[in-house]
Structures are given as structure tokens and as C-alpha cells.
Please model this.
Amino acid sequence: MTEEDTLIERLRKKDETAFKDLFELHIDHVYRLAYGILQNEDDAEETAQQTFIAAYRAIDRFEPKAKLSTWLYRITYNNALNILHQRKQNDPLPDDESERFIPSSLIDWRFEPEQLLLEEETHLQLEKAISTLPPAMRAAFILRDVEQIPIHECADIQNISETLCKTRTHRARLLLRERLSEYFSERK
Amino acid sequence: MTCTELIEYLSQYIDQELDTELEKAAQEHLASCRNCSVALDTTKKTITLGRLALAKPLAGAKREKLYGRLKQAFEDQTKTGG
Model:
């Protein structure tokens, strides 16, 4: 029995400490995805709260073959989209698979990411660049490149095909690169 | 391979998902195209930057605040049977 199996078992038995353990193990991932999609701390907290309560309540329906993390990401993703829908901010991405994106800013960056991150301004520029992406592209980037989840799981979490998931991730990367290049290429 | 095709395959190239023939064509194109090399390099840097900047644990105070809020909401709903 894995540690995850033991945790699920404890959650099913309504072990009081199991809920805290579930939170500690998964809050970083849940919050990052929620904030990534919603770009708002209050909404991300609300989504995280809804996600853990929903997961705790539905734990008896959790399929043992699935991964707990994938299941939690999926609940988080759906909760975040519901909040966007309530706010009427859900971009349906009508052009998901059309239009080729051609990079225009083609000057190399002067510094490596590790060096850039030492400056507060880099974090601000990154946040700003991410906030300009449509929510579904933000979700794809967070899941694939920040959380480093395999493509089939990313697609499963978002309930989309692997092809569409790859397209969203690709476009998110190119758009972010373009926006960040506008800033980093100007640096002297 | 043209520049347009290279850009289309860029993520698959980075993720090492191209078949051998396409990967070879991409490598040949990159060896002779400065613009596409820059696009590749800066896209890789974008991914690294995103991961390093965002994949951080929540700060302790925020974590505690969130857990406190969650516990309270959970207890309230349990009491009301919601």
C-alpha cells in the first residue's frame, strides 16, 4: 500500500488529521493552478477552499486507479472555470487551433533565467505577461511547464484532447516568450 | 524545413516529441537560421523562468491563513449539514 493509498484510506475513515495532511501535500499545487487561471488571490483562495471540501466529501467516489493529484487538479480547474464563468471572464478560445503565430521579437536575452530572477522587476514582468494570456492558455502553461505534468494528464485535467492541450501550451509559450522578449531584449 | 514549420514544431522539439526525421530537419534548420535559434533559446528560457518563478511553496503565513479559513468553512458546513 502506497502512502497515497494510506491517506485515501484515512480520509475515507474521516480521520481528522488526514484532512490536514491532504491540505499540506497538495495546497501548493491547487493554489498555483487556481491563481494561474484566476489571477486574483481572493478567488484563488475561494477555489482552493471549494476544492478541498469537495474532494473530502467525494473521497468515497475517488477511483483508486487515478492519481490523487490529477483528481485535485481537475476539481480545481473546474472550480476556477466556474468562478470565471460567474465573473463572465471565460474566454472560449475560438481560435485554439487556427492561425499560426509567428514570433516577431528575435533578439536574444542578455541574461539567463536564474540571473533574471534575482530582480523583483522580472517577477513583475512575468506576472504581467501571464495575466495577458487567455485563462485556458494560462492553465495549460501552469500545468505543463510549471507543474511539469505529462501531456496525457494535462489533457485529462482540462477534459480536452492531447492535441488541443499541446496547441494551447505551445501558443502560451510563444506568447509569453514574445511578451517577455519585449522587456528582456531591451535590457542593456 | 522552413522557419514557419520550425516555429510550428518548436514545442514538440523542446519536449523531444518529434520523430527522428523531423528532429533531424529541425536541427539542420536551427544550425543555419539565427532567428529560429533565438526563438528556440528564448522559448526555453521562458519555460525555465516560469517554472523557477512560479513553482514555489506558499509562504507560511498565507498557508496558515488558508488552512484556518478552510477548517472554519468545513466545520461550519458540517454543523449546518451543508
